[in-house]
UniProtKB/TrEMBL annotation:
Pfam families for this protein: ITI_HC_C (PF06668), VIT (PF08487), VWA (PF00092)
Family: Belongs to the ITIH family.
Identification of the protein by name: Inter-alpha-trypsin inhibitor heavy chain H3
Its job: May act as a carrier of hyaluronan in serum or as a binding protein between hyaluronan and other matrix protein, including those on cell surfaces in tissues to regulate the localization, synthesis and degradation of hyaluronan which are essential to cells undergoing biological processes.
Residue intervals of the VIT domain: 1-111
Gene that this sequence comes from: LOC113990958
SUPFAM superfamilies, alphabetized: vWA-like
């Protein structure tokens, strides 16, 4: 196994090559596993078997999807990129290798290295899982500005292995090599297990004689901007903290611990305040307060006494913080030359005060008006991360997940450290409009010490070889304003060492950065704007052969007498989540054998039984009464199932999330001309021009051309449609005088395999085979339930072990079904987001 990395001007081109030989006398399956950074894009994958190479081709994701499903349905393995940790995704593929045959895997990925805390960082996951005769990591770096420092470390490096890391750098070149022998890889002298298991990290920085560096190659340019030796601006920082009941215990302890460390780092020129929100909103002080030693001591006492209880008035907390910051600026209470920041931490979803997320987004954007960035930190799995991310991006900030692990306090403090030293505000890098096109983002609210701004673009005239840039920003003492110039000849002189250059690297860097920013803008976009951003990002992904959330890489490999497709997919963050509390789990048996089975019942709880795992997944969908959701849609058989939600008779003021159930179901088969409408009061059958009505007091068996309907009095009905699937609708009746609840319906599907491969919908998408892996089971916030990490559909999700009820046989006596509950309206499990499944009417 060899990992070969070439870095040219921060842009890394990585090739992972693995060769294996089957020395046995029978065929064996060999696995190729690579963990790569989440910020990287795969650009190529190929397999060479007995001298024949099977290359990969990039396709639009939907075009590749059918090939993937066909491969999986044949029981064949398929390569996928899956989220595998906080910073990595795992690419996995396997292939059968004949006796005495060899196979070579080659995976290529590229990424733009980010500068954090004054250094560029390249992260390589090392996990060969076995002793490797020839193992090597080789990193070659070329920086035209010159290299000032270079270091490499590994979490698995022992004193003996330390000597195997070779490091050299001089002027513009740097080289790192790690090549342990077979014996050095062993966990002990007589062991066959590999000690190579962990993170290998390379860090370096470059010389900076000027604040920026411009490079021009073949009609493209890149501009690196990272001034040094500037004084830090004073900060005006508002901490908006969620103190609702769900933060009780360890989360609140870790938050207090992080805030106390942050208070130790706040400088005396800074101004700050704390806003706490639960059912209400409270503030430490009514205005921003200067960080004097006395005020910091008082703040520490305040933080130590923060406790958690109540609900989540996120809107109230954020708006109070924005109002205080706005008032401080309008009243000249803070220095004119200072940087204002809002950091908001929450572990849940708004359920008190204004709880509609679109209203919250609008109010926050209108109040901030682009004057300072909003940073949203989502603690744990209960947050609506898509909402937090959209709101942050709309206000020139970013969102960050805080994982509920033992180091959560360090994660919080680490984020603060990244934004704690602003050097400039309102940074603009301006280029001649008539000379440049397809420019990446060139205006930035803040520049932080230790980071770097990167802008790339394309010349209108590809033969142009000179560029002038006007740089502006506001510093602690005065404005920064200067002009810099570069020509292609200067870049060419700096790049005389051609062996370090890979392809048209500046053009690829521009494409990488453009796609990354288009995908980011797409998160907060809607309607036509979102469609245009998607089309533009897709076109660039296909042109430059990047595996992004919009594309897949397909490799056809030999499998006995058939072909097998390997799909490399790029996971995507959920783009628009909404409130959720989900659960799943259930089994269905024919005799004693479990079969494929899905259902939706209760509030509404979706349950998917996965037979090959002998386990189930569940999730909830939380939407308003009157919403109609598409559950099943099969364009081939013409079968659709939609459901309309109802709520309780009146809102439950003590509940965080209001109950909703299915109060009406519509099952249609357009090929038969059949429409079945089911409510808790009656059942209506429309078959062509014929219409029949029944109540739940009837016991009926109705046989018509193409379908059979059986009504079991006051219990359920069964609809079977010949060559199509069968459905069970369960009637749930409550006490008529119940002050809150009312009658509702549940839906259970049978024989889904009779529907086509094109079936979709909230339930229908799970009629196709689905695989998942459960990792790291550990105690959850509820001592009666375990949490775990689920890897499913290219995503890594925090899930909770729970129970759901199966009412198919008897609506009055349920069977408890264990399942893994996916939070956030099924985000990361369902395709797209749950609002994609809202339709206008029952038919």
């Amino acid at each position: 196994m060899k990992i070969d990395s070439k870095v040219t001007s921060r842009f890394a081109h990585n090739v992972v090559t693995s060769r294996a030989v089957n020395r046995g006398n029978v065929s064996k399956e060999v696995f190729f596993d690579v963990e790569l950074p989440k910020t990287a894009f795969i650009t190529n994958f190929s397999m060479t078997i007995d001298g024949v190479t099977y290359p990969g081709t990039i396709k639009e994701k939907e075009a590749a999807k059918k090939q993937y499903e066909k491969a999986v349905s044949r029981g064949q393995t398929a390569g996928l990129v899956k989220a595998s940790g906080r910073k990595t995704e795992k690419f996995t593929v396997s292939v059968n290798v004949k006796a005495a045959s060899k196979v070579t895997f080659e995976l290529t990925y590229e990424e733009l290295l980010k500068r954090r805390f004054g250094k560029y960082e390249m992260f390589i996951k090392v996990k060969p899982k076995q002793l490797v005769k020839d193992f090597e990591i080789a990193v070659n770096i070329f920086e035209p500005q010159g290299i000032t420092e270079l270091e490499a470390e590994g979490t698995f490096i022992t004193n003996e292995l330390q000597n195997t890391i070779k490091k050299t750098f001089s002027e513009k070149k740097g080289h790192i090599s790690f090549k342990p022998t077979l014996d050095q890889q062993r966990t002990c002298a007589s062991c066959s297990e590999s000690a190579l298991d962990g993170d290998f990290t390379v860090r370096y920085d470059v010389k900076r004689t000027t604040p920026d560096n411009l490079q021009i190659v073949n009609g493209y340019f890149v501009h690196f901007f990272a001034p040094t030796n500037l004084p830090n601006l004073p900060k005006n920082i508002i901490f908006v903290m969620d103190t609702s009941g769900s933060m009780y215990g360890r989360p609140m302890e870790q938050t207090r611990e992080a805030l106390l460390k942050i208070l130790d780092d706040i400088k005396e020129d800074d101004f700050f305040n704390f806003i706490l929100f639960n059912s209400g909103v409270s503030t430490w002080k009514e205005t921003l307060i200067k960080a004097t030693p006395e005020n910091l001591d008082e703040a520490r006492k305040f933080v130590r006494n923060i406790d958690a209880s109540g609900m989540t008035n996120l809107h109230g907390g954020l708006m109070r913080g924005i109002d205080i910051l706005n008032a401080a600026h309008e009243g000249n209470l803070v220095p004119k030359r200072s940087a204002s920041i809002i950091i908001m931490l929450t572990d849940g979803q708004p359920n008190q005060g204004v709880s509609d997320i679109h209203t919250i987004e609008t109010d926050v954007k209108n109040a901030i008006k682009g004057r300072y960035p909003l940073y949203n930190l989502g603690f744990g799995s209960g947050v609506d991360y898509g909402f937090l991310e959209r709101m942050a991006l709309e206000n020139k900030g970013l969102a960050r997940r805080i994982y509920p692990d033992s180091d959560a306090a360090l994660q919080l403090q680490g984020f603060y450290d990244e934004v704690s030293n602003p050097m400039l505000t309102d940074v603009e890098l301006n280029y001649p409009e008539n000379e440049i096109q397809d420019l990446t983002t060139n205006s930035f609210k803040h520049f932080y010490d230790g980071s770097e701004i990167v802008v790339a673009g394309r010349f209108v005239d590809s033969n142009q070889n000179q560029l002038t840039v006007d740089v502006r920003g506001e510093g602690a003492k005065d404005a920064l304003s200067y002009t810099t110039q570069q020509d292609a000849e200067q870049t060419a002189q700096a790049f005389q060492e051609q062996e370090y250059i890979f392809g048209e690297y500046i053009e690829r860097l521009w494409a990488y950065l453009t796609i990354e920013q288009l995908l980011e803008r797409r998160i907060a976009a809607t309607g036509e704007e979102k469609e245009n951003l998607t089309a533009e990002a897709l076109a660039l992904s296909l042109k430059y052969k990047f595996v992004t959330p919009l594309t897949s890489m397909v490799v056809t490999k030999p499998e006995e007498n058939d072909n097998e497709d390997v799909i490399a997919d790029k996971p995507t963050e959920a783009e628009a989540l909404t409130s959720v509390s989900s659960m799943l789990g259930s089994q269905m048996y024919r005799g004693s054998q479990p079969t494929w089975y899905t259902s939706v019942d209760g509030d509404p709880h979706f349950v998917i039984w996965v037979p090959q795992k002998r386990d189930a997944i569940c999730f909830n969908i939380n939407e308003n009464p009157g919403t109609v959701l598409n559950l099943i849609n099969d364009p081939v058989t013409g079968i659709t199932v939609n459901g309309e939600l109802i709520g309780d008779k009146r809102a439950n003021t003590n509940a965080k999330i209001q109950n909703s159930y299915f109060g009406k179901l519509g099952i249609a088969n357009k090929h038969l001309g059949l429409k079945l409408t089911v409510t808790p009061e009656k059942i209506t059958v429309q078959n062509g021009n014929e219409k029949m009505g029944f109540t739940w007091l009837d016991s009926v068996t109705l046989q018509q051309a193409g379908f059979t309907l059986i009504i079991n009095r006051k219990k359920n009905l069964v609809l079977s449609m010949g060559s199509g699937a069968s459905f069970v609708v369960v009637l749930h009746q409550v006490w008529k005088k119940h002050p809150l609840h009312q009658d509702f319906l549940g839906l259970y599907t049978l024989e889904e395999d009779k529907l086509s491969e094109q079936t979709h919908g909230l339930l229908g998408q799970f009629f196709h085979p689905i695989d998942f892996t459960i990792l790291e089971i550990h105690p959850g916030s509820d001592p009666k339930k375990s949490d775990a990490t689920m890897v499913v559909k290219n995503n890594e999700l925090i899930v909770t072990r729970g129970w759901q009820k199966d009412y198919r046989r008897d609506p009055n006596h349920a069977v408890d079904i264990p399942c893994w509950f996916v939070h956030d309206n099924g985000a990361g499990l369902i395709d797209g987001v749950h609002t994609d499944y809202i339709v206008s009417s029952l038919f």
